[in-house]
Write a structure and sequence with these properties.
CATH class of one domain: Mainly Alpha
Shape: globular
Protein name: Nucleotide pyrophosphohydrolase
Number of strands: 0
Number of helices: 6
Structural class: mainly alpha
Pfam families: MazG-like (PF12643)
Distance between the termini: 42 Å
CATH topology of one domain: Helix Hairpins
Radius of gyration: 18 Å
Organism: Leeia speluncae
CATH superfamily of one domain: MazG-like
InterPro entries: dCTP_Pyrophosphatase, DCTPP
C-alpha cells in the first residue's frame, strides 16, 4: 500500500515542533529535560519485557505488542525532539556511528561474539 504523502523524519520533527508550540511546552523542552524523558520512556519499554522469558519476549501477545509499539513511538518522538533541540541530524548521526562501529568491530574480530573489542566503550 503506497502513501501519497509519506511520513518523513522532517515531517515528524515539524509536527513535534508545532505540537509543543501550540501547548507552550517549548519552555519545558530543554535538552536535559528531553534526555530525562527519553530515559523514562525507554524504561517503560524495558518494563514490558522485564519478567518475560526470551521465548515470551519474542512472541508478545497483541496487547503487549501494542504497548511495545506505543513505548517505541514515545522513545522515537523524544529522541527526535532532543535531536532537533540540539541541531543534530539523526540520520547523519546514525550513518556516521554505523561507520565508526564497523571500524571498531571488524567482522573478522567480532563475528559470532558478543564480547566487545578491548578498550571499546
Amino acid at each position: 500500500m503506497t502513501n501519497a504523502n509519506p511520513v518523513t523524519i522532517e515531517t515528524i520533527i515539524q509536527r513535534l515542533r508545532d505540537f509543543a508550540s501550540e501547548r507552550d511546552w517549548d519552555q519545558f523542552h530543554s535538552p536535559k529535560n528531553l534526555a530525562m524523558a527519553l530515559t523514562v520512556e525507554a524504561a517503560e519499554l524495558q518494563e514490558i519485557f522485564q519478567w518475560l522469558t526470551p521465548e515470551e519476549a519474542a512472541h508478545l501477545d497483541p496487547a503487549q505488542h501494542q504497548h511495545a509499539a506505543e513505548e517505541i513511538a514515545d522513545v522515537l518522538l523524544y529522541l527526535l525532539r532532543l535531536s532537533d533541540k540540539l541541531g543534530i541530524d539523526v540520520l547523519d548521526a546514525a550513518v556516521s556511528k554505523m561507520a565508526k562501529n564497523a571500524l571498531k568491530y571488524p567482522v573478522e574480530m567480532a563475528k559470532g561474539s558478543h564480547k566487545k573489542a578491548l578498550g571499546a566503550e
